[in-house]
Structures are given as structure tokens and as C-alpha cells.
């Protein structure tokens, strides 16, 4: 629609040649909603999801199929697309048009039916020497996350799984970077390969620079926590250094270990303690300070 500046209903299957144009421009990967088909139209109407389809690209493909009566060209001409991607060494990100947009739709028939098709498309891509990653769900309750990861790994034969959060509750607009980080940590711990960061503006507005910063930091925290849980070699090294710096009340050492030293330092500077070896929370009642002095045989001055 954007490239050709035409209304959706006027596009035809031949317009998928835009994939070639992107490849010629040098893109590394393209997100394509190849797994949604005319069968999906029947599934959506039959199962009456609470949020229907929340994928922007997926909703447009769905609408195009409804208006034209034709099959999804990204599915129908998938082999031709694979030839383009092989020629230009472009990776396909298989978009999940039927990802759940709320907890009520998580792990339902529409999501899993499309996932099975994405597994088939993954195999076809590999047979043509095209790399693939598979997009995963967006809103999933915590008790279903591990199962979602396992099902994807099985159906898609270990292809890298790219998850959109997942968000673990629907009631936190303005804080969805937190709901996504919770789900992202659990997903990554259970096999997700790639976390899509979510900003505080999710569901509300186009994110600004600060929103993006907050979203990326939250996602990095989730990924790091998952790496520690998975036992990735040296993942915890920086945490151990932070522990050493905190025990020594070495503030500069703590900034060096912090994922966002600028914010950490600004908070301390805004509420400066009376004594440099404490913080304004506990002052001389600081447990770390008291233990250091006790273990070294020093007098512990409190007042």
C-alpha cells in the first residue's frame, strides 16, 4: 500500500514483487505474514476471538483476502519469495498474524493452527537454503509461556523464536514495558531466541525517545536475567562484580556495573546522603556498613 501508494483492494498478487525491491535495497530480513490463509478467515469467524487479529500486517492481508476473494499471495507464491530471498541472502521473519492480542486469545486454535503452518513454511525455507526466524505470541498468561515455547520449538524444529513480549497481563497501559519484561524473561528462559522490546507507550501512542529507552532497558534486563537462569557462561559475572562493589560501598564500581548508570547516579545525587559510605535510605543504620565494620573489628557508630 505505502510503496505503490494504492488502496488495499486495488493491489494484486504480482505486487508482492516489492519483496524483491526491498532485497535489492539491501535489507537483512523481511517480516512476511505467509501463514495466514483463507482457512484463517473461517477460523476467525468460527472461534470469535475477543481481539480478532491485532497484527497490523496480518490484518491487512486478512482484509485483502476478504475483499478480493483470493488466497494470501505471500503463501500462494512462497516458493517465488524464497527464490528472491536466496538470491539476495535475505532472512525471512515469519510473522504471526494470529498472535493473541489479549490473554483470552492466548494459545487458541487460531494461534496454533497458524503456528503449524509456520512450521511447514520453515521447513520449505530451509530446503531452499533460506534462513528463517519465527515470530511468537504477544499476550500470554505466565502459566502458558513455557508451553508456548516448547510447542514452537517442536513444530518449527528449533528455528529461532522471536517473541513480542509476551505481555503477561492486559491491565497495565503505561507500564507494558514491565509486563513485557516479565513475560520476556520467562520466554527467554524457556527457549525464546529474540525479545522484541515493548515501550510504556504500547497500546497508547507512538513512543518517544524516552519511551524507547525505557523499553530497551526493560528488555535487556529480561534477557540478562534469562541468560543467568539458563546458565549462559559468564552471564552472571557482571552481577558478581556488582555484589563486590556493593559490599565495599564502592559507588563508582556500582555505576560501572549498572545497566543504566546515568539513572542510578542521578537518583543518588538527587537524594545525597549525609555520609558518603551510606545512602539516604538507611544512613548509618546501613546493614552493609555495619557488617563491614563488625567483621573488621571496628567500632560501629550509629548516632
TrEMBL record:
Q: Which cofactor does it need?
A: [4Fe-4S] cluster
Instruction: Give this protein's Gene Ontology molecular function annotations.
Output: 4 iron, 4 sulfur cluster binding; metal ion binding; phosphomethylpyrimidine synthase activity
**One GO biological process term:** thiamine biosynthetic process
Q: Has the keyword Iron-sulfur been applied to this entry?
A: yes
Q: What class of enzyme is it?
A: lyase
A cellular-component GO term for this protein: cytosol
This chain belongs to the protein called Phosphomethylpyrimidine synthase ThiC
Q: Which organism is it from?
A: Candidatus Flavonifractor merdipullorum
Amino acid at each position: 500500500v505505502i510503496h505503490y501508494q494504492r488502496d488495499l483492494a486495488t493491489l494484486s498478487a504480482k505486487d508482492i514483487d516489492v519483496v524483491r525491491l526491498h532485497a535489492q535495497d539491501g535489507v537483512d530480513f523481511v517480516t512476511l505474514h505467509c501463514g495466514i490463509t483463507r482457512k484463517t478467515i473461517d477460523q476467525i469467524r468460527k472461534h470469535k476471538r475477543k481481539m480478532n487479529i491485532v497484527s497490523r500486517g496480518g490484518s491487512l492481508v486478512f482484509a485483502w483476502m476478504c475483499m478480493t476473494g483470493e488466497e494470501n499471495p505471500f503463501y500462494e507464491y512462497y516458493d517465488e519469495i524464497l527464490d528472491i530471498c536466496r538470491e539476495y541472502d535475505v532472512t525471512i521473519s515469519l510473522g504471526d498474524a494470529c498472535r493473541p492480542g489479549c490473554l483470552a486469545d492466548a494459545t487458541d486454535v487460531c494461534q496454533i493452527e497458524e503456528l503449524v503452518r509456520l512450521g511447514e513454511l520453515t521447513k520449505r525455507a530451509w530446503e531452499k537454503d533460506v534462513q528463517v526466524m519465527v515470530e511468537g505470541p504477544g499476550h500470554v498468561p505466565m502459566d502458558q509461556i513455557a508451553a508456548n515455547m516448547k510447542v514452537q520449538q517442536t513444530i518449527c524444529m528449533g528455528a529461532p523464536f522471536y517473541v513480542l513480549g509476551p505481555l503477561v497481563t492486559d491491565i497495565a497501559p503505561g507500564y507494558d514495558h514491565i509486563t513485557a519484561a516479565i513475560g520476556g524473561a520467562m520466554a527467554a528462559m524457556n527457549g525464546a531466541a529474540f525479545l522484541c522490546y515493548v515501550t510504556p507507550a504500547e497500546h497508547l501512542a507512538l513512543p518517544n525517545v524516552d519511551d524507547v529507552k525505557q523499553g530497551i532497558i526493560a528488555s535487556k534486563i529480561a534477557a540478562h536475567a534469562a541468560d543467568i537462569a539458563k546458565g549462559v557462561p559468564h552471564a552472571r559475572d557482571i552481577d558478581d562484580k556488582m555484589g563486590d562493589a556493593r559490599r565495599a560501598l564502592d559507588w563508582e564500581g556500582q555505576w560501572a556495573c549498572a545497566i543504566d548508570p546515568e539513572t542510578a547516579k542521578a537518583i543518588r545525587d538527587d537524594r545525597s546522603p549525609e555520609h558518603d559510605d551510606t545512602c539516604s535510605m538507611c544512613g548509618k543504620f546501613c546493614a552493609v556498613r555495619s557488617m563491614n565494620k563488625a567483621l573488621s573489628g571496628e567500632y560501629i557508630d550509629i548516632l
